[in-house]
Specification:
21% strand; 44% helix; 130 residues; 5 helices
């Protein structure tokens, strides 16, 4: 049985690799979602001020902050935000540091695009379900 597909969600993708931002934005846009991207924490905060995102996909290592610190800042602006954490530096120590940490999902890179899309759409559904 296929899971319900949410109506267009609002997603912020934050990664210092512009190509990854582009790919995720394209894949998610093709599914009817509105996507904004940022390559730094500062850009992400500026985007989030005017963009009521439901989900943020945030990389661990950014040029000006860590993904965990950025997620905390974004959640202080938008308490209902669902955060998906990605990293190329996955380790047992990092998984312990992250713990649950209020994250919706955690992905080591490289990840399977369909798995990411499924996680994003589950996060959108959760964000609109009372």
């Amino acid at each position: 049985m296929e899971r319900e597909r949410p109506a267009g969600g609002r997603i912020l993708v934050v990664d210092d690799h512009e190509n990854l931002c582009w790919v995720l934005a394209r894949l998610l846009s093709e599914r009817g979602h509105v996507v904004r991207t940022a390559q730094t924490g500062a850009q992400a905060i500026r985007v989030a001020l005017d963009f009521d995102c439901q989900v943020a996909i945030v990389d661990y290592r950014l040029p000006d902050t860590t993904g965990l610190a950025l997620i905390a800042q974004l959640k202080s602006q938008r308490p209902g935000l669902r955060a998906i954490f990605t990293t190329s530096y996955g380790s047992a120590a990092l998984r312990d540091e992250v713990g649950n940490g209020g994250l919706f999902a955690y992905f080591d890179k490289p990840f399977v695009n369909t798995d990411m899309i499924d996680a994003v759409e589950a996060a959108i559904l959760e964000s609109v379900t009372p």
